[in-house]
Design brief:
By secondary structure, the chain is of the alpha/beta class. Helix content is 34%, strand content 17%.
Length: 272
């Protein structure tokens, strides 16, 4: 096939035609703007900028210094959106870098997106090489082994010297349904201890879902035992019941989670 070689003039004419076609689809300029809407947008923008400036003047949010005072316990939570074992190794490397850089004592997270029954190394084993760890990776084990990639899952682990405070008796546990909806470690060996929890509230999938989302996994399980409520409703009820049980026994609870709802006035927040 003969190669196509355009001359300089042909390239120039082509660009002119492209510019003319773009101009034909330009937004009309003869529409009068809604002045009230413009004023509202300007006021909102000014308010957001002033809020941001105030936060920055107060030291900012969303970032922390590398220094950590004696006696502080630093907890990290992340929705991993797949920890990437075997596919995106940089995620595990980055996580371990942050643990070291920020002197993290407890790592918790959700959506590891892996059926750990098909992985030779547990995620806790891969965390913070050379440091002590006490933790758990929870995921859906109610079904058969299908795909290596499995949506959902939660994890939590104490790292370093804090491992000495993990309760020696039943100090690590997970959601009793074995769906991996939440997991926890218990700190302290006295009568009053602290439960640190990692949890994930599923969100309803779209119409084009492939049937393997966290919502659908849990829906399949609960319907098999006769519960036809939405999985997020069941999750919130079960989690609140578990937390209240601990609190009624006098224990403290620290909850880290992806709630998939407003954490200040959403349904879970009002129940807690």
């Amino acid at each position: 096939m003969k190669s196509i070689q355009l001359s300089h003039s042909e390239l120039r004419d082509g660009v002119k035609r492209y510019d003319k076609e773009r101009a034909d689809y330009s937004v009309p300029t003869n529409i009068d703007p809604d002045l009230a809407a413009v004023d509202r947008a300007s006021a909102t923008e000014a308010r957001e900028i002033n809020t941001l400036l105030h936060l920055l003047q107060e030291g900012g949010v969303g970032s922390i210094g590398h220094d950590k005072r004696a006696g502080w316990v630093r907890i990290m939570f992340e929705n991993f959106n797949s920890i990437g074992i075997g596919t995106q190794g940089w995620k595990m490397d980055r996580l371990n870098h942050l643990i070291k850089q920020l002197k993290v004592d407890i790592v918790s997270g959700c959506e590891t997106n892996l059926d750990w029954r098909q992985q030779s190394d547990d995620m806790i084993d891969l965390l913070a090489p050379t440091q002590a760890k006490q933790g758990i990776v929870a995921h859906n084990t109610t079904g058969d082994l299908l795909h290596r990639n499995q949506r959902g899952g939660t994890m939590i682990s104490a790292i370093g010297r804090l491992c000495d405070t993990v309760s020696s008796t039943d100090g690590i546990g997970q959601d009793p349904t074995n769906l991996g909806r939440w997991c926890w470690i218990q700190l302290g060996n006295d009568d009053i201890t602290t439960y640190v929890v990692s949890a994930y509230v599923p969100c309803k999938p779209g119409r084009n879902s492939a049937g393997e989302t966290v919502w659908e996994q849990q829906q399949c399980y609960f319907q098999s035992v006769g519960d036809f409520r939405d999985p997020d409703v069941i999750m919130m009820e079960d989690l609140v019941t578990q937390i209240q049980s601990w609190q009624s026994a006098g224990h403290e609870v620290i909850l880290s989670l992806d709630a998939n709802q407003n954490i200040y006035d959403g349904e879970l927040a009002t129940r807690l």
